Amino acid sequence: MVFLEKERDKYTKYEKARIIGARALQIAAGAPVLIGTKEIDPIEIAMEEFKLGGIPITVKREK
To answer: Would you tell me which CATH number, out of the four given (2.60.40.60, 3.40.50.300, 3.90.940.10, 3.30.530.80), belongs to the domain 11-52?
Structure first.
């Protein structure tokens, strides 16, 4: 089965939840925020970072 580049780079809803949750935990523990935002809730900040592509977390998948 051949995957297009866009399909392969797309995250599942579970991967997205895991990435946002992990980043929110980092922010709550005092990690610097990677975007300019007025939000104070770590989950909201992590969601904004995810939308803007600013979260330095990758997903490894088995082939």
So the answer is: 3.90.940.10
